[in-house]
Amino acid sequence: MSAHRFTAISTGLSMALLGALTSALAASAPPETSTCLACHGANGEGMAAAGYPRLAGLSSLYLTEQLNAYIDGRRVNAIMSGIANPLSAQQIQSIADYFSALPASSAPSPSALDAAQSSLGRQLAERGDWDNGIPACFNCHASGGIGVQPAFPPIAGQPAAYIEAQIKAWKTGTRQGSPQNLANALMYSVAMRMDETQTKAVAAWLAAQPLPAPDTRPAHTKP
Amino acid sequence: MNASSIAQLSVNAGLLLPLCMLLTSTALHAATETPALSAATGTGVSFHPPGEHMIPEGKFGDMIRMGRDIMLDTPKHAAPFVGNTLSCANCHLDAGRMAGSSPLWAAYVSYPAYRAKNDKINTYQQRLQGCFRFSMNGSAPPLGDPVLVALEAYSFWLATGLPVGKEAAGRGYPDIDKPAQSPDFKRGQTVYAARCALCHGADGAGQKAAGRVVFPPLWGENAFNWGAGMASFNNAAAFIYANMPYGMSYSLTPQEAWDVAYFMDAQERPQDPRWLGSVAATRTKFHDTPYSLYGQTIQGRILGNSGAPKRPPNESEAHIAP
Known about the structure:
heterodimer, A: Cytochrome Bc1 Complex, Chain D, domain 2, B: Cytochrome Bc1 Complex, Chain D, domain 2, 12 helices
């Protein structure tokens, strides 16, 4: 057997396996997720170029809360508000459960990052800018940005455009929590103190960080 | 926080929303639109420690950086002397730089000093030993140990240009007004559930991610022990009022800060290492203040009644022991 032929066969086999795997996944995806998958990717990995966030591995509780926020107007987005609005509570639960069970991608999002941005972004993520009242991202989202779910989602490797848009959404009021939701109050007070340069730098730096696969890190535990 | 408690919050929010949507959103924005920038607000501080990019190269710079690293991740960089999962920076924000958050530069220029806590003149290194013994529930590093030298070098460098022997504005935690009502466990519990539990957990045990502490435990076996300054609820109230939650300095009312500090300090934690054989004797000698709940009966149990400390004092502690 020639090397070419072997490669062709094994590629064919891999494709077949991959296809079977994908259809197995697709089969288990509830019908209400079909709209989600179009933009957030077949495995919920997101679409960095368009700024659509990764949903895989986010906690079910967090995802439920976000969809409800779109419905009651606490979160406003031209695309998402319209998509979320007709969903029933049961459909929301089903979508949230599905994506929370998918493994998060470990690859960083492509991100244009120059040296100055990298240095500033890393500083903000790891240490913050306390002189200007800005705690470090990792003070709450954990070292490496892996998140402390459900209240503090993983942010490493999310698209830069998405992170930037969220910081701005908190500033402009298109992302708000219920008054009882401390997490939103925390993020609001941080976002309102961040200037344009900081916002862009931290978004680009975080996007460039890989999110370690869950099986390479211990589950979130109590000390 | 577990799933059911978040769900409970959502349920409450749903019930309350129609009634108080306008009211609460106004209240939230009133509280968050012009928040105090940081703990430094109102302390009158004018001193700024040098930026970290100014740490010199060479061996001295390396020692300064080691001190900074110890502040940020104490269990990792000072492991032999740490008996819990806290880091210095949990209570000294921004790695000990923040005014109003017990900044190291203000402490550095205040030693040597007499301390009533041990009735001795303490050097700066001896003061640091106390942090390890009580706040870190560990053991005092020997004087001259690299851990103490590093923290001293870092503090010295932070204090560049600050006069010695003069009370520096921004030292310690800012004074907090006395509460209108006596601090109360139940009210504190309510504040805790609304403003603290999200991060520190309903059980006060904090939260970890991938094995590393993100939100420090406030009570229980991994928290500071009964001998720590933070176990006196006047200190805790002052810290909380100025520093908590992160990025939301002075967002609690003084009354809320006193109540929640009382609630936190009315929980069980590791034994005071100065243990004298009984709670009563230890209270009389070391906790004879209305701000310590050690030995008091709260919620039907005597606080601190957990027997002898798990670890006997080491040689370095002989001089700081009573």
